[in-house]
């Protein structure tokens, strides 16, 4: 008891400090909200890159002074600043758009606990007080639910930093009438999850997961040739299955947060091929939105060019002429037209800019077809190192 007593005192002190940190973060966010309203009134942009650079330089000095790890402090404040920028963006966007405010229905892939579910909750945390969660087993069903009015928003993965583009989603974007109104980027921290205390990496015989995590964790998984990979429709479905089986011979590959929903324990963390593993999700709705000129924006286009030499180059030269930054260029076969391709282009720009409207007019003359999938706020807000 004498040994335990000092531990309890120290833990209580740490818990009190944690509560004070949360209170300070809450006060900081209230100031951020006031700041956003001032920027709205004065027509100032959301981001101030020069100030962010100065902030991180000062934090590095203070971290060194207090003997704290600079890398850890930088990561911590990157998250704080990201929350600040996203909070401000939402306030400015609500000023010009009238989105659902009362329990909108959000459609996503897989049961609760899937990465799509986590992305849906992250998006909702900034935009809505309450939501109705609608989970589906196929991407097609998600699109149809929103197109038919069964749901208001769709959250769908579009690309991952390790395994690349989600082709099934790109192909659906060719045909849908929905518009992209936002994006969500979440870290993917894959874990080996089990439901039996006797499980070890050596006793496991079958691992369940969606095909994407297996691609993203191939180096780790291949270290255990005795494992048999079994595909499921989502990571959450894999976790649910492992929870029901309760066997030391089975495991799921998924998120720790999702595993907690199903009562699973982490056997191994951070098993992805890349240390920094992120998935970008797009948010789709029946109507496009207007993006405040004060908010960093992105436009996604679908274009079909002719098969003559240099057709795509001519398109890219138009965008370069107006100094637009291309963040993504993806090609996919045209559905129903063998050997013909279309191109998806993500551009950092606002649709209402005169230069963008001029560029679109020129692109229309160079392409067989051009479709604007959406103009929406960027979420990738913290490039400061």
TrEMBL record:
Cellular component annotations (GO), alphabetically ordered: cytoplasm
Matching NCBIfam families: CM_P_1, PRK10622.1
Gene name tied to this protein: pheA
Membrane-spanning segments: none
Domain ACT: 300-377
GO BP terms, alphabetized: chorismate metabolic process; L-phenylalanine biosynthetic process
InterPro entries: ACT-like_dom_sf, ACT_dom, Chor_mutase/pphenate_deHydtase, Chorismate_II_sf, CM_dom_sf, CM_II_prokaryot, CM_P_1, Preph_deHydtase
Keywords: Amino-acid biosynthesis, Aromatic amino acid biosynthesis, Cytoplasm, Isomerase, Lyase, Multifunctional enzyme, Phenylalanine biosynthesis
Domain Prephenate dehydratase stretches: 105-286
Function: Catalyzes the Claisen rearrangement of chorismate to prephenate and the decarboxylation/dehydration of prephenate to phenylpyruvate.
Binding site for substrate: 11, 28, 39, 48, 52, 84, 88
UniProt subcellular location: Cytoplasm
A GO term for molecular function: chorismate mutase activity
Pfam families associated with the record: CM_2, PDT
Record has Cell wall biogenesis/degradation as a keyword: no
Organism, as annotated: Candidatus Pantoea carbekii
Protein known as: Bifunctional chorismate mutase/prephenate dehydratase
UniProt-listed Enzyme Commission number(s): 4.2.1.51, 5.4.99.5
Residues of the site described as Essential for prephenate dehydratase activity: 279
Pathway(s) this gene product operates in, as recorded in its UniProt entry: Metabolic intermediate biosynthesis; prephenate biosynthesis; prephenate from chorismate: step 1/1; Amino-acid biosynthesis; L-phenylalanine biosynthesis; phenylpyruvate from prephenate: step 1/1
Catalytic activity, reaction form: chorismate = prephenate; prephenate + H(+) = 3-phenylpyruvate + CO2 + H2O
Domain of life: Bacteria
Domain Chorismate mutase: 1-92
């Amino acid at each position: 008891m004498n040994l335990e007593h000092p531990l309890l005192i120290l833990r209580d002190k740490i818990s009190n400090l944690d509560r004070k940190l949360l209170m300070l973060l809450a006060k900081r966010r209230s100031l951020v909200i006031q700041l956003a309203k001032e920027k709205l009134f004065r027509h100032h942009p959301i981001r101030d890159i020069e100030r962010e650079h100065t902030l991180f330089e000062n934090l590095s000095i203070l971290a060194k002074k207090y003997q704290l790890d600079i890398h850890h402090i930088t990561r911590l404040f990157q998250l704080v600043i990201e929350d600040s920028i996203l909070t401000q963006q939402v306030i400015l966007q609500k000023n010009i758009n009238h989105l659902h405010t009362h329990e909108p229905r959000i459609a996503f892939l897989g049961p609760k606990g899937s990465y799509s579910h986590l992305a849906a909750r992250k998006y909702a945390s900034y935009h809505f007080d309450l939501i109705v969660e609608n989970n589906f087993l196929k991407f097609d069903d998600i699109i149809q639910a929103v197109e038919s009015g069964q749901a208001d928003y769709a959250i769908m993965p579009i690309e991952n930093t390790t395994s690349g583009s989600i082709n099934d989603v790109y192909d659906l974007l060719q045909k849908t009438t929905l518009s992209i109104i936002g994006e969500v980027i979440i870290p993917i921290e894959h874990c080996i999850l089990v439901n039996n205390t006797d499980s070890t990496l050596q006793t496991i015989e079958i691992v369940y997961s969606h095909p994407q995590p297996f691609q993203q964790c191939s180096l780790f998984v291949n270290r255990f040739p005795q494992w048999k990979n079994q595909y499921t429709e989502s990571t959450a479905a894999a976790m649910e299955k492992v929870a029901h089986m309760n066997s030391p011979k089975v495991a799921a590959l998924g998120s720790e947060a999702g595993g907690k929903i199903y009562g699973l324990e982490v056997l191994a963390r951070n098993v992805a091929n890349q240390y920094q593993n992120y998935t970008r999700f797009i948010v789709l709705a029946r109507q496009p939105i207007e993006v405040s000129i004060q908010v960093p924006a992105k436009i996604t286009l679908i274009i079909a060019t002719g098969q003559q030499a240099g057709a795509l180059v001519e398109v890219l030269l138009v965008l370069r002429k107006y100094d637009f930054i291309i963040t993504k260029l993806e090609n996919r076969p045209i559905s129903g037209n063998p050997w013909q391709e279309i191109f998806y282009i993500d551009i950092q720009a606002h649709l209402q800019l005169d230069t963008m409207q001029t560029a679109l007019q020129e692109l229309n003359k160079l392409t067989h077809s051009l479709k604007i999938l959406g103009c929406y706020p960027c979420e990738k807000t913290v490039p400061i190192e």
